[in-house]
Amino acid sequence: MLASVNCNVIDGVAWITLSHPGKFNAMSRAMWRDLRRVVLDLSEASDLRCVVINGEGGHFCAGGDIAEYPGFRFQEASLRDFHEGDVWGALSALQCCDIPLVAAIEGNCMGAGVEIASCCDIRLAGRSARFGAPIAKLGFPMAPREAQLVLSAMGAVTAREMLLEASILSADTLLMRGFLTRVVADEDVQGEAVATARRVASLAPRTARMHKQTLRALMTSDPKESPAVAMLADAYRYADSPEHREGISAFLSKRSAQFPPVESGHD
Mind listing the pLDDT tens digit for each residue in 182-219? Predict the structure, then answer.
């Protein structure tokens, strides 16, 4: 079965389901593009009251589809196109959506999953859900605008722990740190998502959209002055670096990475 992003609308609530069988719903390039298209279409629907994002098969999203990476990650131009086109295209569509977004998180929520969840207004999780962004093991950094998004949603302590230690954190830890709205028993995640969506949908929809616009304006700096945007000129120069190639090659070969030392005078 192919990777896909599916959407069903029931009683004013849209259910977006990430599906990549056998890979814990890891995001392929096509899935990022599909997610953007689905969200933009939903954003134009005047009769929608709430959007729930979940994953198929007991997992939210295990990150990116690393099997695709050798095809584009080692050239600066194609790497930039992936992050600034495919990934940021979908994430910015989520951030600009005026309809309330609910993340229903089960199982693995890694990398891309953390970024998608960071765009949501209400984040629900099962108690055994696990969160992280262990890309330091793969030899590449989180893209600037994606890092800014995660930093804003999770806070500096959690972002640093995830990125610098490659830590995997529990749902209870992220509830305590303010990233999650509620944590429930694993078997109750879908039911809680339904109940939450119904509560949101029962309220004034125009008011909800105005609240999202207000909160976005209060929390977002001028995009043209964003520190992340200022970093984009050099952000993907690492594409052909030995560290980047070694990290991904080791993962795909199922071996431990042997990263070379940092050369003097190089980032």
Answer: 999 999 999 999 999 999 999 999 999 999 998 988 87
Of 106, 115, 105, the residue nearest 35 (C-alpha): 115
- Could you list the beta-strand ranges (E) of 120-220: 122-126, 130-132, 168-170, 182-184
How far apart are the C-alpha atoms of 100 and 43, rounded to whole Å? 10
DSSP H or E segment with residue 215: helix 205-219
The strand ranges marked E within 20-119 are 50-55, 101-105, 108-110
pLDDT for the residue numbered 203: 92
Residue 229 counted as domain residue = no
Whole-number Å distance between alpha carbons of 133 and 184: 23
The verdict on residue 236 lying in a domain is no
Structural domains of the chain, count? 1
Is residue 72 a part of any domain in this protein?
Answer: yes
